[in-house]
Structure formats: C-alpha cells, structure tokens
UniProtKB/TrEMBL annotation:
Domain Glycoside hydrolase GH146 substrate-binding, first and last residues per copy: 653-787
Name used for this protein in its record: Glycoside hydrolase family 127 protein
Keywords: Hydrolase
UniProt entry tagged with the keyword Transcription: no
Residue span(s) of domain Non-reducing end beta-L-arabinofuranosidase-like GH127 middle: 419-514
Organism: Bacteroides zhangwenhongii
InterPro entries on file: 6-hairpin_glycosidase_sf, Beta-AFase-like_GH127_cat, Beta-AFase-like_GH127_middle, DUF4986, GH146_SB_dom
GO molecular function: hydrolase activity
Amino acid sequence: MKKQITLSLILLVVILSRITAQDKLYPNTFSLKDVELLDGPFKYACNLNVQNLLKYDTDRLLAPFLKEAGLTPKGEVFPNWVRLSGHVGGHYLSALAIHYAATGNPDCKKRMEYMLSELKRCQKANGNGYIGGVPDSKHLWEEVKKGNIKIVWKSWVPWYNLHKTFAGLRDAWLYGNSQEAKDMFLKLCDWGIDIISPLNEKQMEEMLSNEFGGMAEVYADAYQIMKNAQYLKAAKRFSHKWLLNSMAAGKDNLDNKHANTQVPKAVGYQRIAELTNDTTYTTAATFFWNRVVNHRSLSLGGNSRREHFPEKDDCISYAEEREGPETCNTYNMLKLTEGLFRMHPSASYSDFYERAVFNHILSSQHSEHGGYVYFTPARPCHYRVYSAPNSAMWCCVGTGMENHGKYGEFIYSHTTDSLFINLFIASKLNWKDKKVTLTQKTLFPDEENSQITINVKKPTRFTLLIRHPRWVSSSDMKVTHNGKNYAIGSSPSSYIKIDKIWKNGDVVNINTPMKVSIEEMPNVPNYISILRGPILLGAKTEKGNMKRFIANDSRMGHVAYGPLVPSFEAPFIIGNRDEIQDKLNNMQPIAGKPLSYTIPGLVQQEKYKDLIFEPFFRIHDSRYVIYWQSMSQKEFEYYQASKKEEEMQKLQIDRRTIDFVIAGEQQPEADHLMKNEKSRTGNLEKEAWREAKNGFFQYKLHTAGNEALSLMVRYWGRETGNRTFDILIDGKKLVTENIAKKWNKNAFVNVEYPIPTEMLKNKQYITVTFQSKNNNTAGKVAAVRLLK
C-alpha cells in the first residue's frame, strides 16, 4: 500500500511537471516552451534579444528594491528615469522568465532565480509582504493607507511602477514555473489589499485618476490562481469607473487622454470578464478594443502621438509631431487582443495582432544591436532613436525587453479538439494533449505560401482552423489538402475549417496572395500609407542632420530631437486614388531584395524618384516615410501657398528649442518633474492647458549649459477676470504678467521673455514657476519652451 502511494505521488509530480503555469492561467494558450520558432525574422529577433538582456547589470536593476528594504545595494541605481526606479527591474524579471520559456537559455533562468532570491530578501526585510523600488516607499504607502490620496501625485505614478513588480513575480511563475515567485506574488497581493482596504470608493476612484498600470489584471490573475474572492474584489476596486462605465455604455471618452494609462485598464476589464462573464466588463473591454483598433490606430498597428489619443479634428498632428505611436501601447493592445480572442475567437483579433506584431513590435528592435524604440514618428522624413543597455530606463525599454520573447504566444491556440493557425510564422508546435506535432514552414512575408506538416503517432481526429486574412480576397485564398481546396466559399477575416482524422505526414498548403493597397490616416484622407498584404511599406529618405540614433542617458533621450523636415520638402504623391493605385499595381520588384520595390512615377520630386519601398520593420538608422501626403496638383499648390509660411514659423521655433513641456499633458509634465498646488488642466482648440488659481505650477527644464536663452510661453488669447501672476526662475522673479484682455482673440499666442544671464550661469537645469497673485489665476498656459 505504501509503495502504491509513493508511486502515485511520483506519477502526480510527473503529470504536474508537464502542466506549465502558463497552461493553468490561460487554458487555450500554448506554453512558449511548446512553440519553437524556426528560422526567420522572429527567431532572429528573439535570439538577439536574449543577447541584449544578458548585457544588463542585474544588481543595478535590483538596487532600488534593496534600498527601499533597508538593505545594502550591490550596484548603483540607474540615474535615468530615477523617479520610476524599480519599474524596469520588474519588466526585466518578466523578460528573463519569458525568454527562458521561449528558448531554454540557462543564463536567463540563472538570472531569474538570482533576482528572485534578492527580491525575497527584500520581502523578508520589509516584513509585510512588500517588494518594490518605488522611491520613499514606506512613507508613501503609509500615507495612501491613511487616505492621503494626493500623495500619489507627488510621486511618479507609484502603482504603475509597482505593477511591474507584481507582473514580474507572476511571470516568473507563469513562464518560469517558479513556485517561490508565486508565493512572493501572493504575499505582495495581500500587502496591496491591506493598503487599499481602508479606502472608500471615492478615494479609490480619485487615486485611479493617477496612472496605475495593470493592477486590475494582476489581481484577476491572483484570483484565478487561488480562487480567493478577496483578489477578485481587489481587481474590481482597481477598475477605474470613469473609463469602465463610459466604455460599457458605448461612449468613447478617450480624446486627449494619455493612451497607455487607458489600455492596461481595458486589459484588466477583459481579465475580469474572462473570469466572471460580467457583461459590463465584457462590453467595456470589447468596445475599447474596437475604438482604438478601428478608429485610433495607424497602419502599423500603433496608436497615440505625444503619448495621447488625439481628438478627431487633430489627427493631422500624427503627421506633424516627432513623438509618434508609443511601443508600450501596442504591447498592451496585443495583450488585450489575446485576451479577447480567448473569450471569443475571431479572425478580426488575429488580423490586428498580425499587423501590429509585424509592423510595430518587430520594427521596434534594432536589427543589429538590439536596442528598443520608444516613439515611432509618422511625420514624413523623421527618424527613431534606440536604447542602449544599462543606459536608458524608459518604459518602452521595459516592455521591449519582453516583446521579442513572446512571438510564439499567439501563432497557435486551441480548444479541446480544435487548433487555430492564427499567424503565418515559421514554427514548430508540440500539442501535448493530442500528442500532435505540427511544423509550419514559411518565409512569409517574403513569400505568399505556408506549408503545415502534421505528425502523429496514431491517426487523430481534430479540427484545424486556418485564418483567412482580411487582406486576401475570397477568390485568391487557397488552403489545399489531398487535392481539395478548403478555402472555397470562405470570406476574408474568418477561419477555414478542416475537420478530419489526421495521419502522420499529412500536409496542408496555404496560399495567401498579397496585393498592394492604400490606407488613409485616421480622419486625415490626404495622408496615405502603402501596404502589401498586412505589411506596411516605408521608404528611407536622407540620413543627414540627425543628432544620434542611439540615445544617451539624458532625461528626454527617448525623443528623436533632430530637426524636422518641412512637410512641403518631404516626398509627396500627386493624383487621385485610382491614379495612385494604378501606379502601385505596376511596382517593380528589386532583384535579390525580397518585398522591396521601386514605383515609377509615384513620387514627383526628382530627388525622390528612385525611392525604394520596403517593409518598415527592416528600416533602421535613417529618416523614413510611412505616410505620404497625397493630393491633386492644384491642391498641392494651394497648400504650399497657404501653409508654407505658417509651417516655417513653427519649424523656426522648433529649431531654436532647447527644451519644452506641453502643459496639461501627463507624460510631458512628468518628464519635467511638474509640481503644482490648486491647479487644474483642460483642452481647448486641440491644445492642452494648465492654470492655477491662488496656487502655482512649475517645471524643471534643461538648459544644456546655454547662458543665452529666452522663455517662450504659449497662452490662451481671450482671458478675462483676474489673471496676474509671477513667472519665477529658480525662485527668483523673471516677470510679472497679466494676460486678462491682453489679446482678445480666440487663439493661443506665444510670448517670449529674455532670461538674464545670471539666472542661467553654470546651470544645466532651471525650475520655471507660474505663481498666481492673491485671488488671481496663473495661465492658461499651453506650452513652455526654452529657446536659443
């Protein structure tokens, strides 16, 4: 009997060892260990990312955690984005676990286990379950628990920061199968519940106006792990009702909102919906996805400019700003897409996922040194900068660390007896439950075919569901097996079903002819992008006059601050849509360079007539175009005559600018260490603004050592009432201003104030403060610039 029990226990351990944590949390998702990437751009990107990850100094990433736990750090805290210390460390733990699962690399596992051992020391030293690198953690969280919600605005998004630690511990269990990480994660969850338990719903809602990352998601995960109702309650408490209720009611209230603050909220809604079938959360998550994907995303799959969703009438700013779609946003949109697909498998989710992963995520990693991209400008003839290990500690470095290990996560998915082929990526699947091995051989997108080979030990029945992409017409799609075309009658953006008993060596051939198409910028029809199939085509332009491609460790190093090229000097396309499409249909392939073309007669300017159109994900270290200004000759002549002078004035200011902050926008203000009292924000005429009544607001601006500068402030031009205030430089008065009835026009105006040299001497930074007089209001201020 004793022997039987022992044998049973051994058998149970063997069975459990084959069930990875990833299978437990997402039952229809294959573990990364079961999907092997084969030769192609995604395997290359994943392997390159492992090399990049192993260049990071683990002890420096751990330093904030040890410091906050009262332990001696083994390395120096990274200076870049220091007020968010700890957030990249959490991402790094996730990335190590993900890449260990994807590649089996032992160094990733060794580093993951080392991080866990150090974080466990921190948790033990803290004594209450807490692990975090949030600066001044002890005081901050004590104040939050007391109900002092305003303190979260004096830190830099502390819940967002701490969420990365929650997620890192979860992922060390989810992908790395560490039971120790699971225990640490749950203790941290219990700590978090203790912090928010005293808060009433009004206090929670006020606190959730501050960016808090995926806190609802991780608590939903904790609930699924333990089936403990207190975790589900916490997940719902971290559901920002301002957005939840609007989305559930079918109301899009995203205009001018910080995009990556909102997307993780929707991810949380989806996870709660998945676990509870709550229709409010289901509707909110689905409506959010639809609005962002179908109304607010560019052709590469990314969204936002200057980190915010523009309003409909301001989408032209996508083509004007140097800060285009943020990589973090797409990282989270893919997570939301996967979750919604798990609930309701639909090809529309896979279509978006394919577009975003090929055109944005893959392109956000440098193909040689592996650096990560923050902003991808859509402005014609601008460029991107990349991170370097142990230097830039941006949020998109954190998500970038994870992105390139997750390529195997959505190629396939399954139900009990059905297997979905979602993406055409060279790979090998081990479907353990069915004892089926499937190999997908493809060079997509460089070729239009994929071949599926199925290996089974004995004949096995299951349904194969192959995506019919949105970009392939019904007549062109082919899925053949044993001489039969199963795609006959299929529609774009659906799944083609083959239900049969499969034999060893069965082969399915998939043909997905790609056509070239035009896609307009959302709400801006005179800017178009060009795609072949789902692949965004771009073109390199000039390489000169750029500051750098690899960012330094400066505060704003993630922005490509090189000069902007005037829009009327960028490549433009003359003609109507039919004329343009005819030229695209005659594109000429370049021998020896897959998916690369010249398009005779498309671009008018002589210096651009030989542009090469190629997949955007292959374009690095160059200015480029992905959106092309398109209009008739008459329209273009009018545009030049009416807009040229206005744009040159803007560019002249831009070229003089040393540093600037857009007042009232979350990220620019956080980047410039904004402080305020009795201040409020809003939007007017497509611009954000900030003002303070009987209070102040201030920003820290970089002088770059210049001692001959002026301060340019952008004000609303029709103010009334009491609008007298002081402008201070490092606490010393620069000027007293009164803008009441000063211009009397419904427009923003720029005012330039020379700064005395003594206020700038021997300084790299200055603090600019707008301080209202008694019973007066400072502002409205839309932007603050330091000009040469």
